[in-house]
Amino acid sequence: MTATPEARSFFSRWRWMRRLGCALAVLTASAALLLFAAKKVWDAQFFQGYDSRLALRENRLDRRPVPGGLREKWTLQLTPGKEVPVLFQYATVPDRKIPCLVLLYGIGQKMSFLDEIAPLYVQAGMGLICHEQLGQGERKSEGSKGGWKGLLALRRRASANFAEARRIVDFLETRPEVDPRRIFLFGISFGAITGTAPLAADSRFSGGILMWGGGDLPLLLGGDTGSSRSGKNRLSPWAARLSASLLSPAEPLDWVRDVGPRPLLFQNALADEIIPRRSTEAYFQKAAEPKKILWYSCGHEVGLTKELIQRIVLDQIAWIGSLPPPAR
Questions:
Q1: Is 297 found in the same domain as 231?
Q2: Over the chain, what is the mean pLDDT?
Q3: Is the pTM for the entire model greater than 0.70?
């Protein structure tokens, strides 16, 4: 039976459409593989900023007495060509080296926050040091806000935290008053989330204090906390997925277990309007022992009084004091 011209034309078009569909499928799969490979290469660069051989180029800008100790302001070369402002308050204790906390502050804070809480640490015979994060405070000009540029700036800031927190340890190792066996990372919110990776990667940190943190970035960035204020803090689903993908190298759940057997203190808000409870619990459960979690009757920002902040700091000081003496 001979096919009609119309049938031959139909089958010809059908074969052409099938070939086109196959070609488009191959092109789509190839593009997806290329994007996947490019993302892997880009993510590998997230951790490339740290170089222990780089000169610190210490430049002390200010030094003044504070009750029980000293306050210093420096610029340090933390990454090539970047002279970064640093604040350091520490106790002056004759004939004894002091423990020191490396502070990574929250997403909207600045280095000057150190001056609000440092007196409690100094009075307890400790030190607190903080560098200005990329795009914040005195480094505001290095940042970018809004849209794609804002998301990329947030990724650059998280990547910079990985290198710069470790460079602060390089600086502390040059300080005769600091006990290098008792250097702790202290991260608050964004500082806890992005500080988990350098804490895990650098064994010179004796342990960590992770305050107002959490893990599972898609949940953390887009999850409902149950608070009446959570709606305005949540990203849309696509923005949460995109942000989580951009920050995925720093996913706390991928890093926190590697901190062990060094000790961890988790401090969290019972009514946190930003960090979902499930995110906090996953973060703590993933961590290895020894670990401890403390809960406070406040929100991420709501109800955080001066008295409660003082209690949070005193709990940190007591926890550090309860740890076994470091091995010599």
A1: yes
A2: 89
A3: yes
